[in-house]
Amino acid sequence: MSLRPAWLTFRRYAAFTTGMTLSLFAIGVYTAATGSGLACEAQWPLCSDQLIPALTINPDFIEWFHRVWAMITGFLIIGVAAWTWLGSFGRGPRLAATLAVAILPVQITVGAITVTIGGLVPGGYTVETHAAHLIVALIIFTLLGLVTLWGRDPGARGGSPRLLTLAVGVALGGLLASAVLSRAVPFLTYSPGAQAWFYVAGLTAHFGLLATVVYAREALRGGYEGITTGTARTIQRLAAASMGLLVATLLLGRDLVLYTAFWQQVNLLALGGTLVCAAGAAWLLRRRDVGTGTTAPIGGD
Question: Which residue ranges traverse the bilayer (predicted)?
Answer without folding.
Answer: 12-33, 68-86, 98-125, 131-151, 163-184, 196-217, 238-262, 268-285
